[in-house]
Amino acid sequence: MNAARDLPRLGAVVAIGVLAFLPMARLPAFYDSFLYLVFFWVSLSTSWALLSGFAGYFSLGHAAFFGTGLYTTAVLTTKFGWPFLPTLPVAAAVPALLALGVGAIVFRLRRLRGELFALLTLSITFVIATIILNTPIDGGGGIFMSAVPLPAIAATPNGTIYLLGFALCVVTLAIAWWVARSRLGMGLFAIHDDEDVAEAKGVPTLRYKLIAFALSAAIAGAVGGVHAMYVGFVTVSGTFELTVPLYVVLMSVLGGARSWFGPAIGAAVITSLLYAFISGGEAMVGRAIVGVILISAILWLPDGAVPAAKKWLAKRRGAAAPPHRAQVAPVVTATKPIGDAILLKVRGVTKRFGGLQALGGVDLDVREGEILGLVGPNGSGKTTLINVISGFYPLTSGSVTVAGVEIGRLPAHEIAHRGVARTYQIPRPFTNMTVLENVVLAATFGSPARTAAEIRDEALHWIGFTGLSGKEDVLPAGLNLHERKFLELARALAAKPKLLLLDEVLSGLNPAEVDNAIRLVRAIRAQGATIVFVEHLMRAVVELSDRVAVLNEGKLFALGAPRDVMSDPRVVSIYLGKAYAA
Amino acid sequence: MVDRVGAWRRRHVLAGMMGATAALAAPSIGRAAPSGKPVRVGGTLSLTGFLAQTAVVHKIASEIMVEEINGRNGFLGRPVEYVLLDDQSKPEVARSLYEKLITVDKVDLIQGPYATAPILAAMGVAQRYGKVMIQSSMGIPKLQTYDRAFPATPFGPEPNVTYPNVILDALATFPTPPKSMVVLTSKFPSAQFMALGMKEQAEKRGVKVPLYLEYESGNRDFGAIAARVKEANADFLWVGSLGLESNLLLEALRKLDYVPKGSFHLYPAPGPLAVSPDGDKVLCSTFMEPAEPFISRPGVARIAQEYKDKATKANLPYTTLDAQACGMVAEWQILEAGVNGAGSLEDEKIAAWLKKNKVDTIYGSTRFDGPFNHGDAAQLIKQVQNKEWKVVWPTQFAAPGVKLMAS
């Protein structure tokens, strides 16, 4: 097993060693050039994937950052007389700052996701190109760089360019590898699947997106800096062309954009294919063949070559490797007494959507260890209140405190860090993560820092606790509704919340599943959690709640012991239609 | 010493001119068919990508010329094989492919690619390996800094100075010479380079330039630009256009009910502009057209006919031998003259021979001993007359009965 695990590492070390010393082999210069172009595309496509593949922010603006770096080097060397090498950090920094500036605005706007983000980044390319074209940076004439001396890193200029491209490629892959395995990568993958949920689970989404965007742009810029020397004559039309983003997208998709190594494979394959049909007699046919190969590959391997290979390997190993199994410590079911301290204090909370007032000055206290049932007719503001408390919606006015700390103006991830966890009425698992990865993410971001092993044990515990043992390596698509609801619970519990907000966790379940769920909620409370749960199923409300709050038209309508509230004629008239407890 | 050198030069010039003339006029008479190991000449063209439409013209011209050369005596009695690769319209690919041609395929000689950026990328490679590189489409001569790079198209070393004056000379013959001129140009490097020269030279000669405007290369919407041109209402319009930009601009001007009093277009798509309803009497740059007096040059009629046949077969929209095709024809003529004149395939000897001798190409007698290896400028003016291009200036290059017409 260890040998099998070490083999790729050994292969990587050998490959790096061989490639690093290749210029000394004095191969024909073409091979240096060809491999440089492979490294060039590997670095560009991998850097694109850091944001677009990992976080799902599909960018068509990679040429803007690549081009900014390229022109930074071109201008500093030719117009300011800088030596070439010192321009590279600047070529990385300028596009990184540009990305931070753009991201700081764009990432705050929820509507600028998906195709709008793609179009916006594309338009940034046009803006940058227009600025460069219409200012002395270029002015339209291009920049000729033949007079810029290349440092003698290798024996030949080609060897030097090769080594620079190779070094950037290794650094880029190392960064991608580190990101994919880090907390940052986990957060980015969660953002890719469901950004709002990621934020609610404690992922600082804005910061992570900015880091990914800046890293992506910095690498593209540094690659551009080296490429300026390779091309020798830089023009706006040749730099900011659409083929750059199209190629990086194609390469990343072919190899697997969510994999740190996928874009590299895609880049190597596509660059090689483009060189496989270069003869003048077959140019057009060759391009058509390349197109057919790529279309076929994408059709057959929709997630990319690397994930497909991983799946295939996992299948082969199948029986040999035991699946993850949750170990569940015995659950103490003895009910803890409700404390006197107020855990959640809601005061004068209002929430308006334009002219629509969803919450109109709600006051509510929830004591430590209490289960509060939140009921009301459709549109009464129950889910909105959950969304406001969890930070999904910003408050219009009022205040929300948890354990005496004001959280009403905090972003959702900081609210999560203060011990508030929630589930969703319609389960929203991270679809590309297994059950275990879903719960590990919640445990990682929702509770204080722990070791990876501790987090994993914690996640396995809650998976077992919610009855999902044996499903650890299953993707959410492989779960039924009942199991998905429980996955929601497991994720919420893994964050070790002080306050758990359950939004219609029982809806859609059959009676046996409801009984099971009620037992589970009781067990959760036995762990010491305070629970606010929105529910329409009155049996569950009466059985579980210590108190029931009724919302109507965005206001607190009634509050008290379940049977008292349910038999209140006013509640009956607006909500139940008959006295439930009668 | 000076006399001896002069005599040597004269002998070589005469020998080169005679040899080239004989070669062009009689492709196979009195010569044995080339035999032996082929001389491999490598080059790239942008057969795919955004430059592909023009590169196919170069490819056809190359095929014709390789057949022509092999129909004579090849290179030093050996057949010529053209190793053509597709640089995909990308300078970085052009660079790597020239490295492949030289270091892997080990071709004997190279030919230049098409367009400034690939040419400069290839020129760096040629320089590293000391290869002679002949190119025909780099419109900014000062960028050709490599000692063994030779231009096939006679721009002259300073076309931004010389050619505007050719145009101004022509305009000066109008009954009412223009006193003002709008200079409008694409931001394509070679077009912009010429536009700046046009502005400077016009102002030097007292022609006012009330509007100098640059637009992005590939622009398709000329509405706003046309409005400014109309507003400036100058006596003449000079456009540094590429491809269909001229058609689009003139159409936009017509929509504003404005017809320029006269216009010049630098590198337009020749066919569409000639047949355009807006194209009548517009002026354009050229180096030759397949008509008198050029058609009487040795071999030109045959090459023009072959080109027409092959271009028709390839479904090209414009089948007349144009400046692009002529550039490639001239590249091969210069290489042939250089190899056979030097009697060697060694780049050093070919380069030395070319610098000391004139070569008769489809453009006429061409020399390479000036700055940036350029010789005399030979840029001409052609005009659309009855939907056909006619060379009109300088007058000695106009066909009998053809005159420059004022708009």
Q: What does this 3D model show about the protein?
A:
The complex is a heterodimer of chains A (582) and B (407). Chain A has 582 residues and is an alpha/beta fold. Chain A has a 6-stranded mixed β-sheet, sandwiched between helices. Chain A has helices spanning 2-20, 29-51, 62-78, 84-106, 115-133, 157-181, 183-193, 195-200, 205-231, 236-239, 243-255, 262-276, 283-300, 305-317, 382-389, 412-417, 435-446, 452-465, 481-494, 511-526, 538-544, 562-566, 569-576; strands spanning 143-144, 233-234, 342-353, 356-367, 371-375, 397-402, 405-406, 420-422, 499-503, 530-534, 547-552, 555-560. Chain A has 3 domains: 28-241, no CATH class; 336-418 and 498-509 and 521-577, Rossmann fold (3-Layer(aba) Sandwich), CATH 3.40.50.300; 420-496, no CATH class. Chain A has 23 helices and 12 strands. By secondary structure, chain B is of the alpha/beta class. Chain B folds into 2 domains: 2-154 and 295-310 and 319-376, 3-Layer(aba) Sandwich (Rossmann fold); 159-286 and 381-397, Response regulator (Rossmann fold, 3-Layer(aba) Sandwich). Helix content of chain B is 43%, strand content 18%. Chain B is built from 12 helices and 14 strands. Chain B has helices at residues 2-25, 52-71, 91-104, 116-129, 159-172, 189-204, 223-232, 245-255, 270-275, 300-313, 323-342, 347-356, and strands at 39-45, 80-86, 109-110, 133-135, 149-151, 180-186, 208-215, 236-243, 263-268, 283-286, 359-361, 364-366, 380-385, 388-393. In chain B, strands 7-6-8-9-10-13-14 form a 7-stranded mixed β-sheet, sandwiched between helices. In chain B, α8 (245-255) links the parallel β8 and β9 (263-268). In chain B, α5 crosses α6, α7 crosses α8 (245-255) and α11 packs across α12. The longest helix of chain B is centred in the first third of the chain and has 24 residues, at 2-25. Chain B is globular. The A-B interface holds A 28-34, 36-37, 40, 130, 133-134, 139-142, 144, 146, 157-158, 227, 230-233, 235-238, 243, 274, 277-281, 283-284, 286-287 and B 45, 47-48, 59, 82-86, 88, 90-93, 95-97, 99-100, 102-104, 116-117, 120-121, 124-125, 128, 140, 143, 145, 187-189, 192-193, 214, 216-218.
